[in-house]
Design brief:
It is a single chain. The protein has 4 helices and 7 strands, in the order H-E-E-H-H-E-E-E-E-E-H. The protein is of the alpha+beta class. A 7-stranded antiparallel beta sheet has the order 2-1-7-6-5-4-3, sandwiched between helices. A hairpin with a 2-residue loop joins strand 3 and strand 4.
């Protein structure tokens, strides 16, 4: 399956995600993206930094983060997952061995459903070496 197919079929087509992108694990290259979903280099750099941050209180937890120019408040930050909310909408980012999945869900979707969709794709990619 192509990277674009993962965005279109495994994320957006579920109905739990309305736009998404897949980056390499360093965040320096976009492998696939929904039309009009643009994550700036500084924004993905902050996501990558959050995965590497081992502080008790991570910078992203105290400051939040931006995706596609929108600011999100951090609700979960771990070594492979970053969740953010803005009102009732939100973002889920998941790091695999070679990729970072960044997915946005609209206010009509429950955060848990969106997180499960993205985390399951992350688990699958890890299981096949990505």
């Amino acid at each position: 399956m192509s990277w674009q197919a993962y965005v279109d079929t495994s994320l957006v087509a579920t109905g739990n995600i309305d736009k998404a992108a897949i980056f390499n694990s360093e965040g320096t290259s976009v492998w696939a993206s929904s039309p009009g979903f643009t994550v700036a280099p500084a924004e993905i750099k902050a996501v990558v930094a959050s995965f590497a941050d081992t502080s008790d209180v991570k910078k992203v937890q105290s400051e939040g983060f931006h995706i596609a120019t929108e600011k999100f408040f951090t609700i979960k930050s771990e070594d492979r997952s970053l969740y953010g909310k803005k009102g009732k909408e939100g973002v889920v980012a998941v790091k695999t061995k070679q990729a970072i999945l960044v997915a946005h869900y609209p206010e009509t979707v429950q955060p848990g459903a969106a997180a499960t969709t993205v985390e399951n794709l992350g688990d699958y990619l890890i299981s096949v070496g990505y």
